[in-house]
Amino acid sequence: MSNMMSWFRISVLPLTLASSIFSACVSPQQQLTGAALLGNEAKLAKLLEPGADIDAPAVVSGGYQHCPSRAALTPLQAAACAGRVGAVKLLLDHEANPRATGDAGESALIFAVRRGHSEVAKLLLERGAGIDARDAQGRPVLSVAAREGHASLARFLLDRGADVDGTDPSGVTALMEAPNKETAELLLARKASIGMLNAKGATALHEAAAQGRSCVVKLLLEHGADAEFADNDGATALRLARAGKHEKTVTALETEHERLIRKQLSAAERAARAGDQDSALVLYTNALDRARELGGNLEWEIRDKIIEYVASWSAPPAVPNKAREHVVRANYLLKQGRSTSLVLEEMTAAVNEAPWWAEGYYNLGLMHANQKHFEAAMKMLQLFVDSAPTSRKAQEAQDKIFELKIAQEEAEKIAGMAGNWSGYQVSVEGDKLAISGDGKDFTLTINNNALEGSVQSEPYPGSHNCTIPGQLHPVTGTINDDRNRIELEFVWHSYNTSYHCVDMFGLAANCCLMCSEVCDAVSIVSTTNQHVQLSR
């Protein structure tokens, strides 16, 4: 028994010594902040003896758990961040400064508000924390609460006098930070300005759209937010929502854009009925400009309306000089052999300046047809037919539309060929067909039902340490009318390898267990015509 007690005393001594060393390594300030962080009021009261630096920051274990990204905290910041109401009261009773920012650059109130500790925030404000407090980035305390979606805390701060439109150094308001409908509703009820701009020239609607906050976007629109207002980069809220691929937000904004466009169309129709041709045409053209950004069928609906309206005039309006300038530019680019896409851009700009111009639609339709832009070509040519039904080119344009429909159907059939065919993988891009399988890669061009191109293979390891070379040969082939069978014809080589053996010293030897094979040559032994048939 005495031996066991001796062993216990010996084994405990190192642990006691280690504990003493550990305590000695933790400074009084760390102990103070640590007790505040954990809400250990008894220990905190003992440590708050005369001479304790109550507002000094310290690095404590567990700080990151309660206050992410924060390491050095004052005792009051630590208690506020962790929501320790009793510890906060005890520290304030011992005259901790509620406005002290320490190394973090923000007061205990900001810590409490960010973490949603309402009771702590109320206590701090009652004991002298400033309602004008800001976080390390310069955000007002109300924006901190709004950013985290703490609506009840935001309401309390507003009741205590927080500025509903207070901004950070970048001009961002609490409404721009609001992540949910509840917070945004509160701020709007307290008369937050819906049209304030930040340094980017963006409104609250821009910020909500960019973040995909669809409920906030709908609420802002209901309160009169301008969906068509553009920021400093020329971006509307819709453009930002599309860039972020926020589908629900995009839908809400598209609906609002269409409402505004149809409102302008109604104004155009009223002007037309009143006989005010100039005003009506301006309103129609402006509606078209707005619809082009929206996209979809509304743009074409408005173009039809403009053409129908201008057709009722005794003489069509003149083509504006701006439209003619774009035509001249297009012709110049065409003569210089420049990119077709640039020519298309100029001709498109021309018909946008003069959306009643029949000849412009005709030329643009033919250019799209040459590029196999089937939908755009047919729409443009149909607009020409509608705007100039008696033109000698009208029947030609109508026939071209029929031809394009057939070509589109064929293109859709070819595009539908992508996938797996008898173990070969087929991909399609326009009139190009790529087929991979059995170690071969085919690159083919489709011309009606005929195929022409090449087949190649990469070098690969063969027998006796020889490398079989890659091959490249021409290919011809066909596709059947139903687009469910492909036949390919090409030649292909077969190879033979010759070799000798060497021993471990690299000397020629009869082949044996310990010998290595050395490739001497790779030669073609036969060339055969290959016929590959793929189906699905």
Tell me briefly what this model is.
With 536 residues, the chain is an alpha+beta fold. It is built from 23 helices and 13 strands.
Question: Secondary-structure map with pairings?
Answer:
Layout (H helix, E strand, L loop, with lengths): L1 H24 L2 H11 L2 H7 L10 E2 L3 H4 L5 E2 L1 H7 L3 H9 L14 H7 L3 H9 L14 H7 L3 H9 L14 H4 L3 H9 L14 H7 L3 H9 L14 H7 L3 H27 L3 H18 L3 H14 L9 H15 L4 H14 L4 H13 L3 H14 L6 H22 L3 E3 L2 E6 L2 E6 L2 E8 L2 E8 L2 E2 L5 E2 L2 E9 L5 E18 L5 E2 L6 E20 L1
Antiparallel strand pairs: 1-2, 3-4, 4-5, 5-6, 6-7, 7-10, 8-9, 10-11, 11-12, 11-13
Keywords:
536 residues, Serine Threonine Protein Phosphatase 5, Tetratricopeptide repeat, alpha+beta, two-stranded antiparallel ribbon, disordered N terminus, nine-stranded antiparallel β-sheet, 3 domains
